[in-house]
Amino acid sequence: MMTDDTVLEVSDLQVSFRVYGGKLRVLDGVNLRVAKGQRVGLVGEAGCGKTTTLKTIMGILPSQAVIEGGQVLFRGRDLLKAGPAEVQSFRRTGAAMIFQDPTAALNPVFTVGDLLGVGLRYATESRGKTDKAALDKRCKEALAEVSLPDPDRIMKTYPFQLSGGMRQRVCIASAMTAAREVLLADEPGTSLDVTIQDQILRLITGLSETKGLAVVLVTHSLGVVREVTEYVYVMYAGVVIEGGPTAEVFSRPLHPYTAALMECVPRLTGQGFAEGIPGRLPDYRNPPRGCRFSPRCPHSTKTCEEAKPPLRDAGGRHTVACHLEAR
Amino acid sequence: MDDVLKVTGLKKYFPVGKNMLLRAVDGVDLSVRRGETLGLVGESGSGKSTVAYTIVGMYQPTAGTIELEGKSLAGTAVKRTLAQKGTIQIVFQDPGSSLNPRRTIAQSLGLPLRLHRKVSSRDLPGKVAELLTLVGLPPEYKDRNPHSVGGGERQLVAVARALAANPTVMVLDEPTSALDVSIQAKVITRLAELQSRLGLSYLFITHDLSLMRNVADRVAIMYLGKVSELAPTADFFRDPLHPYTRMLLSAIPVVTAAEEELKPRKILSRGEIPSPVNVPPGCSFGPRCPEAMPVCSKVDPEMVQVSDTHWARCHLHGTAGGRAAPSLPA
Lengths: 327, 330
Prior knowledge:
The complex is a heterodimer of chains A (327) and B (330). With 327 residues, chain A is an alpha/beta fold. Helix content of chain A is 35%, strand content 24%. In chain A, strands 6-7-8-3-9-10-12-11 form an eight-stranded mixed beta sheet, with helices on both faces. In chain A, strands 2-1-4-5 form a four-stranded antiparallel beta sheet, covered by helices on one side. Chain A starts with 5 loop residues before the first strand and ends in a 7-residue tail after the last strand. The mean pLDDT of chain A is 91. Chain B has a nine-stranded mixed beta sheet, with helices on both faces. In chain B, strands 2-1-4-5 form a four-stranded antiparallel beta sheet. The radius of gyration of chain B is 21 Å and the shape is globular. The C terminus of chain B is likely disordered. Classes of the chains: A alpha/beta (327), B alpha/beta (330). At the A-B interface, helix 8, helix 9 and helix 11 of A face helix 7, helix 8, helix 9, helix 10 and helix 11 of B.
């Protein structure tokens, strides 16, 4: 069911990394779709390929990465086949990315004003002589938009003079200096305290609502996904194994991995939690031939070990890649 | 009450810059009872790890006393007896950096076994295997290096190393926050088993309130070097008294509607924890508090006993209902 307001779509993405003595087959079937103004979550545990997915979208994969197949469609155009000019234009006005660690994302030898200015000049393609006053004005507006107090002072500070929460706000401001359509947020609150994370997530939600900004929120926290997003994709070992409206996935998880993961989350009700999922992520050098979760799955059958389950429609915009659900 | 570990008036200041002090811990009273888990929660910069490090003797306290089984302990570990050092052990957040990467697991476990339990070289392999089995790891792991086992298993090796010294009190400093939830669940379950089997007392430090709800018997919450609320876990979550506790609880992302109902009405979190170098006058939470009164910016509230077991450091509970208590929570 495709609607016209799709901004970004990833289909059957496969990415490998060349390493000494072989190849890591990391992404093997990532499918996601984001509509205008929609907040979409991409949730999974460490090492499942969430960040690799975002980096592929932005075209910033390291040189040892190989894109084996699939498409990244921005407004219907395949970015993986596009020329450098089109990719640049996508980064200028199409999408911006914010990273998990704002300290590493901000160059420590420049002031916030310099950092925002460079980003804005890149986004607006203004080379050579620029109207410094207009540039500064726009940067200050961006800082005010992310509720940083006293933008004039912040412009002159270096990143180390700010707290973690303020640094992350600067990163978001930098993404917001130019009008963009998609915000790729990679664990934006993870390195922050829960009260600060709450403020950052409210800010992102607010920007998405007021500006019609599409958001892809990558996180390992099921709680964050539930509070912020409308639609969620669950990843395991480089594969999107389930997708659905957030409320629906939380009340009726279909994939055994999603269900098991939910059981592991400590609850505020103090009801205790499951003993964890036995085993660990497969070795990407030699991943299971069939379903990548099959070695850890309690319901695994011979079919699961041999054939990769396709992503199928489970009704109500809910999709799942599991042989069990094929009944 | 049978307190295994009792901390009174603990302060730890660090000198920074010119004539300035970073008040990391600024008057903490805590006690850990035999066989219980005391949860210590706080945001980064609240001083919870400094409390842990001071208890195990990594820092010399600026003021205050630490008592183990009723006996006062020297400030730093070098001045403590071997038995005292063995009785309090610590597990750090990141087993990747707390375990020596160049030693095999058997070597890491062997040293404390020889030192604290006087195990002879002949008995050592057997004891190492016993210890690994105790924490639920296969004995074959003994010849592996820390990096060749998974994150959760590596943390269990760190737990085994602490147990090698035969402790009664374990200080667990964010033992699972570097791990994925599916792995965390396994480590937590194992820690709970070990506690009941060996009769251990835990001081469990974390920033994760949902986790705390499931592991702690009592919870103490820290803000800017002080304990702001202390209560049995069920009371703490049913009836949070301090506005900071309520703000924290309302900011936690949860996964079920049932949990949503337990959260206090949405209090929009605002501001950030101030610098411990420049502590605001009066109540340190005052500038962020939605219920701040004029008195809050002038007078630092005392810890007040609001009910038999529930303590809070807040002017809201200072006059009405509560009675001022000068000494340590019982």
